[in-house]
Amino acid sequence: MEDNIFKTPYQTYHRKPYAAIDPTQPALSTKSKSAVVTGAGSGIGASIAVSLAKSGISYIALIGRREHALQKTKSAIEAASTDTNVYIYAVDITDLTAIDEALQAFAGECASGPFDILVANAGSLGPLSSIRDTNPVEWWNGFEINIKGNFNLVHAFLPRASPAAAIVHLSSAVVHGPYFPNESSYCASKAGAVKLFEYVHHEHPDMFVLCLQPGLVAETGMSPGFEMIANGSQMDMASLPWDDAALPGDFVVWAVSPEARFLNGRFVWANWDVDELKGDKEAILADPHKLKLGLIGGPS
Description:
Blueprint: E1 34-38, H1 43-54, E2 59-64, H2 67-80, E3 85-90, H3 96-109, E4 115-120, H4 136-157, E5 161-170, H5 184-203, E6 208-213, H6 223-232, H7 246-255, E7 267-269, H8 274-279, H9 281-286
Parallel strand pairs: 1-2, 1-4, 2-3, 4-5, 5-6, 6-7
Helix pairs in contact: 1-2, 1-7, 3-4, 4-5
Pfam families: adh_short
Keywords: Oxidoreductase
GO molecular function: oxidoreductase activity
């Protein structure tokens, strides 16, 4: 099969980390800053947390439902950086009181002041079945996590955030891609989440808000969906063009740096080349609809 199963607007398509997004570069340093990462116990969230540590983040809150998984990420961070203060909070983002208390506790630990970075990575695939055959309660659970959970998270983060804080929401290609069989809960709730973060952007224009498609990363909560895609395409899982989990991790470090500020309010893919994105900066800033969700051919 082709190495890339999606058509993209940029020539270079990365599957592994590369020099321009190396988190150890001085230009991408997050030293003296703080970050909150949800879904940090494994996969993409854990990778993002480790990349932030490599970039020098001073304070990081790891949020997830499984404490033992968060402890593993904490150990990986401590192996990558001796300068990062790591705090774990085993809470469910669908519980507003719990997430608010967790961020209040983290705020008390951050000598750097208000929060600088939020990585909203936690999500739910939901049931993999048709609308007719699905369990309605299980189907709605995707919205509980992908929309309500992210609302709770942002609602708790904003009062404690720096006026120029950076927020990155880990989204998915499904929100603008073709029909994905049996993934109505996931697709609909992830599309709604993009609109939620669009509102965060407009309500807080001095903050940086970005929606990011992290790539095709194995061993995440989305793996059952990837398996269904593979089966539907008559492929096996091994034949899918997998991306290195470190790619979205390093990309997020670049995204929260001053270099990426021109992408505020946009939707991008971690696979796209950042130098090509920077080369497209004037065109992106000149077009209020470029790299955003919208109606093709519709009114502006």
